[in-house]
Amino acid sequence: MNRPHMRKETLRSALPMIALFMLLTLSAGLFMSLLFKQEQLRRVGRGFYGDRAVFFSLTGDFESDELELVPLLDLETRTDYIVVASVDGIRGVFFKGNPETPPMLEGRFLTAEESTGRERIAVVGVDQWEKVTTIGGTRSLEWDGRRYEVVGKMGTPYESSLNDLVMVGMGSIPANQAATGRFYVDGKNPQTVYEEISRNGEASHAFQVTPTARPAEMADAIRLNLRFGWLYVSMVTLIMMVSSSILMVLWIRGKTRAIAIYRLVGYGGLRICVRTLLDGMVPAAIGIFLAILLQ
C-alpha cells in the first residue's frame, strides 16, 4: 500500500471521531453558556441575590442612640461577602472583599469603604434615574430627607427588578432605621457568614438575629429549567466519554496490522499502547479545538 493511500485511509477513519467530538463539544458549550446566562438573568430578576443567599431579620432595642449596625456585620475572619438590607424603598449595602456586585450601565458601584462609612453615596437603578437631579455638576438623589451623591447607574438593558433599586452604604442609614429592614447575606459561604453574624448579635446583647423565609420571586420559575439543563450537560458529558471509549476500541481494532508490524520490529507493549492511543487522541483534540473556535 503506497503512502498517499495510507494517509487517505487514516484521514477517512479519523473523520468520524473529529465530527463526533465537534458535535458534542459544541452542544455542551452551547448549553453551558445558556445555563450561566439563565443563572445571571435569575439573579438580576430577583434583585441580585443568588440561590444560596440567607435571609434574616433583627430584633432588639432599636431606640438607643448608640446603636451600631456595621460592627455586627463586619466579620474579621470572613471576606468576599455582601449584606443587603431593604429599608423603606432603598437598599443598604455592606460588603467585604470582592463579592459579585450588580452590573453597571454608567459610573461605578460603591467601594467597601463607602459601604461602611457615613458618607452619603448612592447607586441608582435605571428605572429610578428620573429621580436623580444635577446640582452644580453633581448628581444627587433625595431619600427620607437626606441627599445622596449618585456615583453610578446600575441595571440591565432589559426589564428586571434590579433596574428599580437604589443602593446606598449601610453606614449612611441610621442604625435604628436600618435594623428594622429585611436582610440577606450572599457571596462566599453565606450560611457560615450568617451564623457568625448571629453569634455577633448574641455577644453584643443588642441584636437577636432570626432567619426568615426567602421571598417568592417570578425569576425562580426557571429553576426547574436549570436543573434539566444541568442534567442534559451531564448526559452529554457521559455520552462523550462512552462514545470516545467505543471509538478508541474500534480505532485500536483497526490498527491490528500496524500493531503486528510494531511487534515484528520489537516494540514493547507499553510503547505500542502509547503510540496507538496518541494516534486516536489527535483527531479527538482536533475536533474539540475546531468546536471551541466555532463557538
Verbal overview:
The protein has 295 residues and is α+β, with helices and mostly antiparallel strands. The protein folds into 2 domains: 3-40 and 222-294; 47-216, no CATH class. Strands 1, 2, 3, 4, 5, 6, 7, 8, 9, 10 and 11 form an 11-stranded mixed β-sheet that branches. It contains 8 helices and 11 strands. Helix content is 46%, strand content 21%. Helix 1 packs antiparallel against helix 6 (223-253). A hairpin with a 2-residue loop joins strand 7 (138-143) and strand 8 (146-154).
List keywords for this structure.
295 residues, alpha+beta, 2 domains, eleven-stranded mixed sheet, 8 helices, 46% helix
Distance between the termini: 39 Å
Approximately how much beta-strand content do the residues carry? 15-25%
Give the overall silhouette: elongated
Count of individual beta strands = 11
**How do the helices and strands follow one another from N- to C-terminus?**
HEHEEEHEEEEEHEHEHHH
Q: Structural class, judged by helices and strands?
A: alpha+beta
Count of DSSP-assigned helices: 8
Characterize the main sheet: 11 strands, mixed
